[in-house]
Amino acid sequence: MKRTCLFVALTVCMLSPMNTFAQKNLIKAGEKLLPANLRKMVAPLVHKQTAPFAVQGLSAAAAHNLSLQITSQVQIKKPLMHMPALLPFEQHVRHFIFTVSAKGVERPFKGSGFVFAEQHEGQTVLWGFTAAHVVRGMGTDVNVTFYNDGKEYVYPARVVMTGRKYGINAALIQLPPEVAEVARPVLAAARFPKDGSKLFTYGFSGGEYKKTLRRVLAAHSDRVVATFPQQNQPRPGFCGSLVVNEKGHAVGIEVGGYSPKKEYLQWYHVKDKLQSLPRGDLSRISEIVPFNRAYDLIREYRNPGSALRVILFDGMIIGRISKDEFVERVTVHYEDGSYTTVMRNPFFNVAGLDDLFNLENAVQADIVINKNRIHTYGYRVNLKEHKAEKIGDTRE
Length: 396
What we know:
By secondary structure, the chain is an alpha+beta fold. It has helices at residues 2-15, 21-28, 36-47, 60-72, 93-96, 132-135, 266-269, 291-302, and strands at residues 75-77, 85-87, 97-102, 111-120, 123-130, 141-148, 151-162, 171-174, 198-205, 208-219, 224-227, 242-244, 250-258, 285-290, 309-313, 316-321, 326-334, 339-343, 362-370, 375-382, 387-395.
């Protein structure tokens, strides 16, 4: 009886618009985990969505602790007539995701984004991620909007760093401290997803909430390539959405789906010559920027130059690539005078750029890096002598 009364009393407190006992304890949690007794009382309320969507004065650290609670209990539920669901994660997913739009624009385009946490100098800081091409035309000042219970929670924000569409296709959004009142940061996946595993994507399609379920075709440090939904396909605005694994941990950022065969992308039509491509149908695919690649942006923001990545070819360190660059093409030449050229594609992995090629009887490789939209530079690799040289800037 006492336990029932306590549960009811706490429910009333959590629903109150005032800074009640339960809310004060959440705020007081600050930089440490919620006390075990409070965690036990709050958990069932949170998972049943009886807590208010916005909690006034909630700190970033407390918001992160709530994310830990939610994600620690994730299980896949498989209804007979519906797609699998991650519970209790999906009951709270609107805390994790938002739309991003240009500030001061009437009826602006809305892309998708999500929240993550950084531990910086002993403090928890909340940031936003979206795809770089989503915010390209929005300018620096943007709005991020959370939706729940028929309400919109709008916060001013700033795009402080972006990568390149064919490279680190991600943008880092600086969020105001007040966003912690509604936002919950995702937890990063500990490893790349396995081929064939399920991926759940949450965002906004045409401004409306949308969820998709796909399977992994291939995963490496630059891209996760997944199947594309055959039915109820997403519309513009879905790029930037949150992609999680079966534990509800962030795998990366959705950056778009397309049909390489229909668009006549060169790599697709020479795929029979390439190694390390997944088996199966690649005529309709989705690209995902891995979470750790997106996190390079915050490293670069804190310490310029720290996000340079090593380019490896045939076990050699060829050079380093920045967040503003991507591999435009690679050509491998053979002893008989033949060659194979592969243009930019989601299977280029700068940590093993030769993975796609058969190097038997190969004598040279030419690697072209796109530095910006009109300049390129490159590396010439002598595969017989096992050495490389840099080729200067050129205009395309």
